[in-house]
Write a structure and sequence with these properties.
By secondary structure, this protein is an alpha/beta fold. The chain has one domain: NAD(P)-binding Rossmann-like Domain (Rossmann fold, 3-Layer(aba) Sandwich). Strands 3-2-1-4-5-6-7 form a seven-stranded parallel β-sheet, sandwiched between helices. GO terms for molecular function: oxidoreductase activity. This is C-factor-like.
Length: 256
Amino acid sequence: MAAQPVTVLITGANRGLGLEMVKQMLEGKCPVKKLFACCRDPNGPKAEALQALAKKHPNVHIIRLDVADLGSIKQCSQQVGAQVGTGGLNLLINNAAYLDKSTVQKTTAEGMQTTLNTNLMGPMYMTQEFLPHLRAAVKASKIPGMSTRKAAVVNITSFLGSMQLVKDTFSIFTYIPYRISKAGLNMLTVCAAEELKKDEILFSLLHPGWVRTDMGGEEGEIDAPESVTGMLSVMESLTEKQNAAFLDYKGKTLPW
């Protein structure tokens, strides 16, 4: 029996990991009915590669979205809702992120707030505003249990949000605002999984690895295609057993 086509939304889809996710999902085994590729400036130079993909694939819909702006999130949710209707949204990938590399001594209130707005408040508001679409997907689905083909929120996090790994990683990455925002995202995800498990919506955290992107830098250990291939494979394998799991792109469980 052929897999049921899914609807997917990816934030930060114009470059790096987000753009690679769009590319690989379009070429993947699981058919994509609609792919909402969201970014802050769809008509800007940094979205040219995404625009080129959308021209080739009519199931790609580019939507302007600033995850640090609740008004923008609400508007995006309305646009998506108008297109998916009662079929809902099967998979929400909160990928957009902001990196502040400051130390404890140099971190500013402005830097911390900007980081938290994008990395923590953004995914929280995205979850809240897209919850009706995720619930609609559960209602429309005939798949038992939990999965990313039914209704799921995958939050792209980092091993830098792990408290247990601080001693192992701090000499290479200080990144205080970023670390705190990702630790907060981890807690948010675990709480959301607990609160919404009765709705049969899966929540999971994925660490993409240290990737050579604009954010990860040239010193990264892997390229975006390798990271995304791994993450998509992990996403496809997720069930209720991995609800609230903290995994890397290879499917390995990470310490909190």
